Amino acid sequence: MIKGHGGNVQALAKMHNCSIDEIIDMSSNINPLGPPEGLEKFIAANIHLIRSLPQPDAADMVESFSRYYNVPLERVIAANGTTWFIYTLPAAIQSKNVLIVGPTYSDYQDGCIMNKVNFEFCMSDAANMFKPDISRISDMAKHSDTVIICNPNNPTGAIIPTDKIIELLKTHTKTYFIIDESYLPFLPDAEKRSLISETRFPNLIVLSSMSKIFRIPGLRTGYLSAAPDIVENLMQYYQPWSVNALSQAATSHIFKNPESIRPFLQMTRSFVQTEKKLFQDAIGDGSNPKNLCIRLKLYPASTYFLLAEITGSMTSDELCTKVGEHKILIRNCANFKGLSNRFVRFSLRDRDTNLKLAEILTKILSD
To answer: Please, which residues bridge with residue 99 across strands?
Structure first.
């Protein structure tokens, strides 16, 4: 397992001898507005569920997801987070040569290593603003039985248009394509872009996370949508009661109340688009010779988290340490394969916090 996942607020709090509540976490990609109103009260009111075993196959979770997205039941699995799928799929679909579109989330690589599966990367680069090269992905996919794409991608925020993914599915019919849509719900046109309900392609596997959009990472919940034979193979690795009772109840409650979900999604999408623009404006556009962007380059992102490259002499370790002195945690991207100690990631929060970070960055990088 890679050391340095986002969200290690405990380490920063210990370093500065303060409580965890004093740390502002801008390293972990979770919804700044979540959880949805009433969800925590619902969980508290159902705490008694821990007294009994949960459903062994999380059947109610599957049914609620199936109904919400209009996906046949036999195409859905609910699990203890999308991480379980990432580490189990290479064995279940018998992957031998995996292509990972990067730079991206490290667990895709770790899942291959755990299953002793060969893997290689198709890296996007800074020169092309980290935009994935579809032609190169297609060429490399000829020699792969599995391709993993995080869409939108973490940490770059780049997104591959749905029609381009469908072209890949049609071109490489004997290759599995695992599409991780964990961050897609934050996009204004997420429903049009999502492949969750797509049933035409037997080589398509879609991962869907509840953690990010509903801000419930501690509950560990995730879904997979795929052809019935893939689901059947995965179920051979499924452990009974792997999703706890509170997780099952909470996620079922969310999907069974679409009248509250949809306004929450719309509010989130509007909020993050507005706040991202304000943060980018606060960092600057380069028109001012004293502008921060001379020392910090923000890359275009479809998401609410932003990848930045330090263009001055400072390293990502040094910048994270200096920002940490203000009890703000940002993501050091030095351990992402394909990046370096010049890259950091900001996961935006409320307006005051975002502007505070911009002010701190300006001071640090101007000294």
So the answer is: 120, 147
